[in-house]
Amino acid sequence: MERPVVNLRKRLVTPAAAVALTAAAVLGISGTAHAAKADCPKGYLCAWEKPNFQGRMQQVAGDNANLRQYAVFATARSMYNNGAQCSVRVWAGTNFTGDSVLFPRGSQYHDTSGTPMRNGAGSNRWC
Q: Which of 1, 18, 49, 109 has the most CB atoms within 10 Å of its CB?
């Protein structure tokens, strides 16, 4: 009697994929691995993990005393203010400390190297 062949890879991948999807849902990670500048929603400050709006993107609205809790903001390499009404001030440190930069609505950093945000963004306040 011949035994059926079991596809072990399929059995292992399916639970792993389920765990990954669950983790993504819990953490609020977007399904888009790489976002462009045009993907930054109106009313948000967006940051990318690579220069020129490449790689993973994260977005925030409202004032944030600790942007470092968000992986992409903590090491941001490009940023864009797609605010609906006003400028946003971004500080290098948490709790609105350290050097800061005022981003008027529509302004951007293609590359944060050589700027106060060279080591990522720490906090932000609108208007």
A: 109
Q: Which of 86, 90, 87 is nearest to 78 (CA)?
A: 90
DSSP string across 56-75:
EEEEE-S-BS-GGGSHHHHT
CA distance 104 to 98: 19
3 by Cβ neighbours in 10 Å (0-12 / 13-18 / 19+) ranks as exposed
**pLDDT tens track for 69-119:** 999 999 999 999 999 999 999 999 999 999 999 999 999 999 999 999 999
Q: Are 48 and 78 in contact (CB under 8 A)?
A: yes
In the chain, what's the furthest Cα-to-Cα distance? 76
In this structure, are residues 48 and 56 in contact, taking their beta carbons and an 8 Å threshold? yes
Is the CB of residue 47 less than 8 Å from the CB of residue 103? no
